[in-house]
What does this fold into?
Amino acid sequence: MEYIVSARKYRPSTFSSVEGQDNITVTLKNAIKNKQLAHAYLFCGPRGVGKTTCARIFAKTINCLNITPDFEACNECESCKSFNENRSYNIHELDAASNNSVDDIRLLIDKVRIPPQIGKYSVYIIDEVHMLSQAAFNAFLKTLEEPPKHAIFILATTEKHKILPTILSRCQTFDFNRITVEVAVEHLKYVAKKEGIEAEEEALNVIATKADGAMRDALSIFDQIVAFTGKNITYQQVIDNLNVLDYDYYFRLVEAFLKEDLISSLLIYNDILNHGFDGSHFINGLASHFRDLMMCRDSQTVGLLEVGASIKQRYLEQAKLCDNDFLYEALRITTECDLNYRTARNKRLHVEFAIMSLSRIPTEKKKLLN
Ligand SMILES: [Zn+2]
It folds into this structure.
């Protein structure tokens, strides 16, 4: 049996199944409910967070012949079916990253004039709209100023600051959030369950963290892991596959730093290098670890910690053992090491010296006080 790529198979088909963008889906639904559709929308936000997905759902919903009382597409009428089977004539997508010339836009403008045969609206999605050439932008502006009644434009961009003010002022803007690790993990759990895949929570957490706020990336990394490991995903397999350093190393290092145990610290670092990780990757991860510990020091910032429930407890416990002075000094040392890593001639010694400094924080503090 061929494994269907999750990002495609589990693409949401209604507003309510879109993850992590509640503000946007609620507002779009309200616009449909109140019959207050704009002619142009601008969807901004990082890649892989659901901009195109929401645009497609919106296009489908406003053309649905039998919209539900909850203002969702019915997914059963002829129009919805044609959308779901990618054969609807009411939706047109242009990827401005590869079609950014005046001619591409002129072709689109010609199409816009023709009213749809079936359904009420023709929806034009222009992805990566900031990539349009200046001339293409200008050609498009006229149409955007006086669009035909049946036409709705949804412009999507990852780089809002590159959109001309003349375009911005004509669009209703929606800012999409990056997906939190928590939301991504929940979605991966759902997909795993549907696919009959057993997955350790920490394994999914590493995948979600690696995806860095993009659901599409989280799903494609998930697929990659499934292809390698089959129906049972463990934390160990994931960190091996993704070349992620086990966070256990960081916890052990901090324990050693607190005890001023220089020998153990250097040996742990040696072990990390022997596993094929490079120093810059390591020091970056260590800095993030200190950052996370700092966030755990206060109940108001603990929410900024993006880790799974089981590991969170370990962070909270370690954070109790560190005081703010220690963490501040540790962050200073690690960020400085990271900053100068590229220019350091002896990279191993450069990191080792940072480790030596980290192993002497309490002693150095005492010296200063005397
Ligand atoms: Zn329908």
Remarks:
- The pocket of zinc ion is lined by residues 64-66, 73-74, 76-77, 79-80 (CB under 6 Å).
- The two ends are 72 Å apart (CA to CA).
- The CA atoms of residues 253 and 268 lie 7 Å apart.
